[in-house]
Amino acid sequence: MTSFDSAQQRDGRLGVGLVGDAPFGPVFAAGLAGAGHALIGVAVSDGSPAERVAAMLPGAGRLTEAQVIERSELVILAEPADRLEARIRELTELGAWVPGQLVVHTCAEFGTAPLGKALDRGVIPLAIHPAIDVTGTSLDLARLKEGWCAVTAPRPVLPIAQALVVELGAEPVVIAEEHRGRYAEAIETATSFTRSIVQQSTGILSEIGVEQPGFVLSSLVRSAADNALAQAQDLIIPDDLDDAAGQ
């Protein structure tokens, strides 16, 4: 196991390991591998998770969780929100963590608080969530190039989290630990509302005999979303102007 300090001496390249079955895990690992980091191995379940790894990370070695963690300088803990804290507790009780290694989870709902037990074992906790509708495919890598990722980390290591996001091709936006719940609510609202409206609209067009209603609506939905986002941006008052107005 190479320490984080020695990894930094190698021009910042890290040995990256993936643990968990969440769809964004292989995408995250593939993005970092594309940026020059070394993929150490993956610990995923058979079935769909293994198929995603085969597609996104061809040739990746499948190891046990303990082996991946022991050999990695950066561990991507790809667990769903309802399993994250339990998995961290299980791995902590197994004594799996290596002091000085980076451990990043990808859940929208949480900052670094769930990694508290791992932090007690000397790991460096990071929380990075992609603000895209994740598919678990190479399409996500393309969407990240024009997307954002929420980052939460202790202040001394926040630049590390931001740098990882930049290496994915995305832009980092810092979300405070206490605001992760509201951030997750915003992401879920935008995602579920968009899906619901598109499904309702395509259903109506199908009922009146329109073929391929999704294609018919694609430009409309994109342009309407772009216009709404532009209008929302115009309503945001920059912090410096807001402060000036209050003086």
What is this entry, summarized?
With about 250 residues, the protein is α/β, with parallel strands linked by helices. It is built from 11 helices and 7 strands.
User: Overall 3D geometry?
Assistant: globular
Q: Give the mean pLDDT.
A: 89
**How many DSSP E strands?**
7
Count of alpha and pi helical runs: 11
Report the C-alpha radius of gyration, rounded: 20 Å
Order of helices and strands: HEHEHHEHEHEHEHEHHH
Structural class: alpha/beta
Any low-confidence stretches, pLDDT <50, length ≥5? 1-10, 240-247
How is this structure best described in words?
There is one protein chain. The chain has helices at residues 4-9, 24-34, 48-56, 65-71, 81-93, 116-120, 138-144, 158-168, 180-207, 213-235, 239-246, and strands at residues 15-19, 38-43, 74-77, 102-105, 124-130, 148-152, 171-174. It is built from 11 helices and 7 strands. The termini are far apart. A 7-stranded mixed sheet has the order 2-1-3-4-5-6-7, sandwiched between helices. With 247 residues, the protein is of the alpha/beta class.
Question: What are the salient characteristics of this protein?
Answer:
247 residues; alpha/beta; seven-stranded mixed β-sheet; disordered N terminus; disordered C terminus
Element layout with pairings:
Elements (H helix, E strand, L loop, with lengths): L3 H6 L5 E5 L4 H11 L3 E6 L4 H9 L8 H7 L2 E4 L3 H13 L8 E4 L10 H5 L3 E7 L7 H7 L3 E5 L5 H11 L2 E4 L5 H28 L5 H23 L3 H8 L1
Parallel strand pairs: 1-2, 1-3, 3-4, 4-5, 6-7
Antiparallel strand pairs: 5-6
Helix pairs in contact: 9-10
